[in-house]
Design goal:
single chain; mainly beta; two-stranded antiparallel ribbon; 4 helices; 20 strands
Length: about 400
């Protein structure tokens, strides 16, 4: 029997690792942000869920977040390929989302391996430009100005992707990330043609439906439908881009649309979003109009939020830009933290501004350093503030690598 000592094993491992990592088809990239948020008395202050979902992240959120992706691709002379993807993220948080510290003053960190899957394409039995995948996968799509995910999947599954059609089956979705309390299966299908996308998501619980959601008995199925149209005009007025998106759901509330979550079978949800951008000389303009409505059957309440946010980025010179953002949200039967209350209607608003420093002063260039001053407030019945307005001070850096 041949004995191999530790030194030989180390040498072999190093040799083969070098072969893998030296291959040009191996890639590593990621994202990181960190910052400091305070109120006018310099007390730690960070976003709450209601503020972010209604009024966006800018000037309100300064948490720490890091994500990384490793991928390795193999290909042959017949244009067949396989790609392994591994992604992770870690962040600081608390249950109240007020700041990244726990009750004893220590930071809470979680590490989540969100993607471990293999995708294959160019195989002889597959149509051209299509692929299959198997493993654990996290897929998100969001409304940037609102910092709001309008679709999200995070679980083990199998899927097929092509130019005009995608189909995915998920099982054992990550319950904590999805906000789901039961084991579920989900089937998601997408039709794509030109600038139009149609998507349907069906979710079914595989566990006892006597589990609860917000203190109420759950149903065991939900359905979400999404229709999206992209236009090469800025809200039909000038050159730019605008995405029009309509979502409806049964068995979910609006914050859980297209997320493989079941709240109550009789709940109904709607979301209409107009998301556009355009450039004019040294300015980049972004705007979002978003309407959400949820009928919560168990409480016989319909709560709604109508939000408008506008953002302007002005290039001052090669390294400095000024960012201005304002948002307003009208709420019915809901307060700023998202708690349903039959008597609370009102208006919330945010005005935020500050300089940004980067290598090239347009907002998609990273790394970037931002400092901001924000005024946030409105009707105290829906903000939960002690005063009509609060001032927020913040600094944050953000980078891709």
């Amino acid at each position: 029997m041949v004995k191999i000592n530790k030194l030989t094993l180390t040498a072999l491992f190093t040799f083969f690792s070098t072969l893998v990592f030296a291959d040009d088809s191996f890639s590593w990239n990621g994202y990181y942000r960190a910052g400091l948020g305070m109120d006018e008395e310099l007390v730690n202050k960070n976003k709450s869920d209601g503020e972010v979902n209604s009024l966006g992240r800018f000037g309100l959120e300064y948490d720490d977040f890091v994500a990384g992706v490793f991928s390795k691709k193999w290909s042959d002379d017949k244009e067949q390929w396989a790609k392994f993807n591994f992604a992770f993220n870690t962040f600081d948080y608390t249950s109240t989302n007020n700041n990244p510290l726990n009750s004893s003053g220590g930071k809470i960190n979680t590490l989540n391996a969100s993607d471990t899957y293999v995708e294959m394409g160019g195989l002889t039995f597959l149509p051209k430009d299509s692929s299959i995948w198997v493993g654990k996968r996290r897929t998100t799509n969001g409304i940037d100005l609102l910092d709001l995910n309008y679709r999200k999947f995070n679980g083990h599954g199998i899927g097929y992707s092509s130019k005009n059609f995608d189909l995915a089956f998920y099982k054992e979705l990550n319950s904590g990330d999805m906000g789901e309390g039961a084991d579920v299966i989900a089937v998601d299908s997408i039709l794509k043609t030109g600038n139009i996308k149609l998507e349907g998501t069906f979710t079914k619980s595989t566990t006892d439906t006597s589990s609860t959601y917000n203190g109420n008995k759950k149903g065991d199925t939900s359905v979400s439908l999404l229709a999206e149209y992209k236009n090469k005009k800025f809200i039909g007025l000038s050159s730019g881009n605008t995405t029009y998106r309509l979502q409806v759901g049964k068995g979910v509330t609006s914050n859980k649309l297209s997320m493989s979550v079941i709240t109550d079978e009789k709940d109904e949800a709607y979301r209409l979003t107009i998301d556009g951008n355009t450039m004019k000389k040294n300015w980049l303009f972004n705007t979002v109009i978003n309407y959400e409505s949820s009928k919560v059957d168990s409480k016989d309440i319909t709560y709604t939020t109508l939000t408008f946010i506008g953002k302007g980025t002005q290039k001052i010179n090669e390294n400095i830009s000024m960012i201005y953002e304002a948002g307003v949200a009208e709420k019915e039967n809901i307060n700023l933290s998202g708690t349903i209350n039959k008597n609370n209607d009102g208006l919330t608003y945010k005005i935020a501004a500050g300089p940004a420093i980067q290598m090239n002063s347009m907002p998609w260039i990273r790394p970037i350093i931002r400092t901001t001053v924000a005024i946030v407030g409105g009707d105290k019945e829906v903000t939960g503030f002690k005063e009509n307005t609060e001032i927020r001070l913040g600094a944050q850096f953000e980078t891709y690598f």
